[in-house]
């Protein structure tokens, strides 16, 4: 059973028209700036939900893609190479004062989906303006990672291999953000900034996507009839990814006071679910090896450590289902031990823990920068 954290791709932005602010020295540069604006407008209209294009036309424009998520991913992949090229050329002249002023006139504004205030804002989303093209590139990549993750969830019931691959690709995008794109931006960030613009939040998201990818791999292993010992190790590997994400998120909270507690609740819930599943398979393996007393102790400890349930109803239902499954299994083993085996149940200090095996790794993101010359006026 997997739970999801919906809404990460529900970012909003304000219009940016590059050719109205950046002055081109030749017609080729002007056309490229117009193309940048056109590609961005396609993204804007999609995420701001103000496009008047019919489904049939959208499908035709995307080469036959029927999934709205896939169409949005394609729009981002069309915009990103042009944006990477612009960022490259502007960085070459970043010490020019006039260029800095022009970049500020672009008024790059994005909302957040990770702040606590974003949930309760009555007059539409709150926008953060940061006058830096690295902010634009960062937020577009945040959106790209979120869309890949959304598509992974979309295909989960149909193609486990594709779903795991998409999660790994999303992890690679967030890893690239955390280590390449966002670090140069950190000193330019104002005190009030969206959590998505910080490197550590991208690190958290990269770990969550790796945990998701491994969770899908475990699901595939379960369907293939793998043994409980391997499944226990794989589930505990998911748990370790999430422990690392929680540790990183605690550091994020010191930088971003407004980050939503819902994200921590989600990660903690996922961690508990996979921990319980790993204990279930560990207990089954112990029982099959004739160690039913130890299996009883493992299940008792697992249930004792999982009394708190998440706040969100859908997550709570999944958590309760797994807890109920383990409770039924514990009663079965206790009954079997009481009437047949009469094994001593070891104390907590003598009980084994599952061993973790981590098999998911990010698929590295390599920016597809278009090598086009831009000649801008100073």
UniProtKB/TrEMBL annotation:
Gene3D superfamilies: alix/aip1 like domains (1.25.40.280). InterPro entries: BRO1_dom (IPR004328), BRO1_sf (IPR038499), BROX (IPR038898). It comes from the Eukaryota. Residues 31-378 form the BRO1 domain. SMART domains: BRO1. Belongs to the BROX family. This is Endosomal targeting BRO1-like domain-containing protein. It comes from Forsythia ovata.
């Amino acid at each position: 059973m997997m739970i999801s954290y919906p809404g990460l791709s529900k970012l909003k932005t304000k219009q940016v028209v590059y050719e109205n602010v950046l002055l081109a020295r030749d017609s080729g540069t002007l056309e490229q700036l117009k193309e940048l604006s056109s590609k961005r407008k396609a993204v804007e209209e999609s995420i701001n939900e103000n496009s008047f294009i019919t489904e049939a036309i959208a499908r035709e424009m995307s080469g036959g893609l029927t999934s709205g998520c896939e169409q949005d991913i394609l729009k981002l992949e069309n915009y990103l190479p042009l944006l990477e090229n612009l960022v490259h050329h502007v960085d070459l002249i970043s010490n020019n004062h006039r260029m800095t002023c022009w970049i500020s006139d672009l008024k790059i504004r994005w909302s957040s989906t990770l702040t606590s205030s974003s949930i309760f804002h009555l007059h539409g989303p709150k926008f953060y303006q940061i006058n830096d093209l690295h902010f634009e590139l960062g937020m577009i990549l945040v959106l790209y990672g979120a869309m890949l993750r959304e598509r992974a969830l979309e295909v989960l019931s149909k193609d486990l291999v594709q779903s795991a691959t998409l999660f790994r690709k999303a992890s690679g995008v967030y890893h690239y953000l955390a280590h390449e794109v966002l670090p140069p931006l950190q000193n330019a960030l104002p005190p009030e900034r969206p959590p998505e613009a910080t490197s550590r939040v991208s690190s958290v998201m990269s770990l969550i996507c790796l945990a998701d990818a491994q969770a899908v791999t475990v699901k595939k292993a379960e369907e293939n009839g793998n043994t409980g010992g391997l499944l226990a190790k794989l589930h505990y590997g998911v748990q370790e990814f999430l422990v690392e994400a929680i540790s990183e998120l605690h550091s994020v909270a010191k930088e971003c006071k407004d980050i939503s507690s819902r994200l921590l609740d989600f990660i903690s819930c996922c961690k508990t679910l996979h921990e319980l599943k790993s204990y279930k398979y560990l207990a089954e393996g112990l029982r099959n090896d004739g160690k039913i007393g130890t299996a009883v102790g493992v299940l008792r400890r697992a249930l004792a450590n999982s009394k708190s349930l998440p706040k969100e109803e859908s997550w709570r239902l999944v958590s309760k289902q797994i807890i109920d499954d383990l409770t039924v299994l514990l009663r079965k083993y206790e009954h079997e031990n009481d009437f047949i085996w009469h094994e001593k149940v070891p104390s907590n200090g003598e009980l084994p823990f599952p061993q973790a095996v981590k098999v998911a790794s990010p698929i590295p993101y390599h920016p597809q920068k278009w090598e086009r010359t831009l000649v801008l006026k100073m």
